[in-house]
Amino acid sequence: MLAFLLISLSFSGCVCGAISEHINKIRNDPEEKLTQAAIFRIFNNGKRSIPLLIEVISEKRYFRYRLNNPDNPTTSKINENIGYVYAYLIELILGKEELELIVTDDDFLGSKKNYVYWEGIVAFQDPEETALIDEHTLFEIQYLYRRWWKNNNHKSLRQLRDEWKRGSRPLTHSRFCWK
Fold this sequence. Notes:
By secondary structure, the chain is mostly helical.
């Protein structure tokens, strides 16, 4: 029994280490193709990736890619902090059953079918809100994702995806939303 527990913990540590390695590739790799490969691997780890992504949401580092759907004819604001990318990846895990594996130089997520939001930005629910969404907002967003995870980590990925499709998402009932 003890051997099984040690093997389980060891495997869990290996998976978390691999996910962290892919998060580091997104953070540090200037080549988009390698970033896409890391995203696909994080996505394929599903629910196991979520707590690791939540822990890095507050990271304040510039990220050069837009998260808007390439079919969006208007150029959306860019979420310059990489923390928004990590939050988007959580939404991607929850919002998609699978990703279409196309590596391209044009689109951050490969296929246009891989995007879960049209504009790919975090905005205020209230259009009258005038405060800026900036790097300080990342801490509040991270808190919201942590709270959501604490209340939902016991659910299966299938349940989380079903709830996401019905509109129950990490930022639901907060002053923020994804567009």
